[in-house]
Amino acid sequence: MAFHDAGTFKPVPHHIFLGGFLMLKSVIENVHALEIFDSRGNPTVEVHVTLSNGVVGKAEVPSGASTGENEAVELRDGGSRLGGKGVSKAVNNVNTEINDALKGMDPYDQPKIDKTMIDLDGTPNKGRLGANAILGVSMATAVAAAKDAHQPLYRYLGGIDLEMPQTFHNVINGGEHADNGIDIQEFMITPIKKTSFRDGFEKIVNVYHTLKKVLEDMGYETGLGDEGGFAPNMKNSEEALKALHESIIKAGYKPAEDIGIACDCAASYFYNKEDGKYHLEGKVLNDEELADYYDKLLDEFPELMSMEDPYDENDVDGMVKFTASHKDRIQIVLDDFICTNPALLKKAIKEGAGNASLIKLNQIGTVTETLETIRMSRKNGYNTMISHRSGETGDTFIADLAVAVNGGQLKTGAPARSERVEKYNRLLEIEEELGEGERLAFFPDDVDHD
């Protein structure tokens, strides 16, 4: 099942001939879920898909804190248990309705399995069964099929056209991910010059540890936010960028040449719907003034190369105007604006908003729809950035996915906290498996990497 056929998967025949004998292909025998806990200590869903030959695929579903209005619904129990965040309803939906519907189905026919669950749910946002229930089954089915085919997940999903991703690491947290004075949500670093994935990751680790010392020297605490980045109680975003700039240099690298910076503005969280303005770190700004503020940051820090959600998800005019004036200067990543939804991405493309798509499996709720969004992005010249969520597990599905779709970019937190580092360790394993023939994604594309 190669990525290039995404959206038009070709199921494997139900029988194969091996050594002259007719062998029946395995089918789904049982789907079972249980309630587990994510990196923030909140309940989430784990799913096991068991095939008729005993092969089991497992998946653990992540959860976001910074969520878009149009994301698929994460079904929670409500009530007093676990602060209302329990997922026993979603678990029960897997163990009853979904299990009954998928028994006997071909695990290789991912589109049919995902469509069966979407139709069974019957809502436009997967709100009845829960996107967390549906996604867990969708992911676990892909894992089971890969194991049944005796292939690593990245090979099963991607075939032979594979690429190690450009990684983005959230090393200073603000916004919804930290309790401090920074309104911009994430400040990330990315290795521009690298000879291998490992080489690039080691550069990031060096800058991360240097940043800790720089922050301590500045008199800040170095506690960690949800995604493993530091959460110092800084006054504003400029101060965060200055700390990163200094850390890159002190680690022995050149800003904008060896290491780049990206940020997730998450502007919906400092946009005031009542006055239609952005309340950012003591400033009250309209669309044009916010663009001027971003220009100030870009002028002062040329290593700032990518901005995610610079405008509110409903501020179409602001996003379109910013894209028109900045698309040749920086990467403009759409997250809340599209929510990994092919229909919303199609609308954004038509309007001329952004030039890159953030891809989160649990925003849309199935593997098939996620691959369709990636395919649509690539066909229309948009970069793609596969992404974790703030509430993560040790599941490494997105690491394999990023390689499988040669999606170019992956963000999954700082090189700290095991639920983040597991993704990077998985990429190191994949790099070793691919050997000397590995291909590397580079960002920005016009940089000389020799």
Features:
TIM Barrel; 3-stranded antiparallel β-sheet; disordered N terminus; alpha/beta; 450 residues; Enolase-like, domain 1; 36% helix
Protein described:
It is a single chain. It contains 13 helices and 16 strands. Helix content is 36%, strand content 18%. The protein has helices at residues 88-102, 110-121, 131-148, 153-158, 197-217, 237-250, 287-300, 316-326, 342-351, 361-364, 367-379, 397-404, 418-434; strands at 15-18, 21-24, 28-37, 43-51, 56-60, 166-173, 186-191, 259-264, 271-272, 277-280, 283-285, 304-308, 331-334, 356-359, 383-387, 408-411. Helix 1 packs across helix 2, helix 1 packs across helix 3 (131-148) and helix 2 runs antiparallel to helix 3. A hairpin with a 2-residue loop joins strand 1 and strand 2. An eight-stranded mixed beta barrel has the order 6-7-8-12-13-14-15-16, surrounded by four helices. The protein has a three-stranded antiparallel β-sheet with strand order 3-4-5. Strands 9-10-11 form a three-stranded antiparallel β-sheet. The chain starts with 14 loop residues before the first strand and ends in a 16-residue tail after the last helix. The protein has two domains: 3-150, Enolase-like, N-terminal domain (Enolase-like, domain 1); 166-437, TIM Barrel, CATH 3.20.20. Residues 3-18 have low confidence and may be disordered. It is an alpha/beta fold.
* Average pLDDT metric: 92
Question: How is the largest sheet built, in terms of strand order?
Answer: 6-7-8-12-13-14-15-16
How many domains? 2
Find the count of extended strands (DSSP E, 2+ residues): 16
Order of helices and strands: EEEEEHHHHEEHHEEEEHEHEHEHHEHEH
